[in-house]
Amino acid sequence: RRGFGYVTLVTALVTFAGAAGMYSFENPAALREQGHGELADRGGGLTSYGEAVWWTAMTMTTMGADTFPKTPEGRLLGWLLAVYAFAVFGYITA
Length: 94
Hints:
single chain; 94 residues; 5 helices
């Protein structure tokens, strides 16, 4: 039981920290810096921390999200979050 509580706490921390990272990598200013100005001008990217938390939660629950990371850093972080969520799902079901 205690192990499940630790995993839940760590997962919450990973979710909120991952959302902060995704917001810093995928906000409109960062997209313009990476050469995706046209996407940023159309309202693309993660425009708020709340939106980044939503995107991260959908990725962590394997439901998926409407948008995909455009920057290399965002893609790497998104992949790491998905791998973490897959491992946690395996732990919980075992």
